[in-house]
Amino acid sequence: MTSLSRRAFVTAATATLLAGCGGGHTTTAPAANSAAPQGSSTPSRQPGAKKAPALTRSVPVTLRVPAIGVDTPVMQLGLASDGTVQVPPITAHDRAGWYRHSPTPGQTGPSVILGHVTVGAYGDGVFRHLAKLRKGDRIEAGLENGTTATFTVTTVRTVAKAEFPTDEVYGNVDRPELRLITCGGTRTGTGYLDNVIVFATLTG
Prior knowledge:
Distance between the termini: 21 Å
Number of domains: 1
Low-confidence stretches: 2-7, 13-20, 22-46
Order of helices and strands: HEEEEEEEEHEE
């Protein structure tokens, strides 16, 4: 990851996280003061999957999660003008979005993909069943260069938005990993109270 990308990545970790709620509700992520500094590497906190060698950088264009019926194009997301992470637009043809300041799927580090659980009047979002994933389920990221990066789910967590685990999601790891993020938990008039976070490791 370039130093510019790394700075933007850490900025996102310390900014308000708009994690695919589909209702405009925002989540304030904790400050990333304890996040691994640029150039460092900490052991993965997600055991249980065999390690695969890292892939070269290539932008994700599709995402398949067979266990929950996800087969979606992937768009690129950056930072909004207020410094928050962008999310995919609210449309009838909902798509997942890769945060382009994170590693591409298969590169060493945490690649981050966001999706909606609901899309307003259009109904269910692309990540509507994300919380149903279980350890061992497969995730396939189709890359621009024709390669498929295959990940295995290691952990699925539902956390209160006020307790979003910034370092665990954005902090450096020593192998290629993937984070899928959406909203979950109790729905209120303005959105959802929790985030659902899937942690996965490259296995093929």
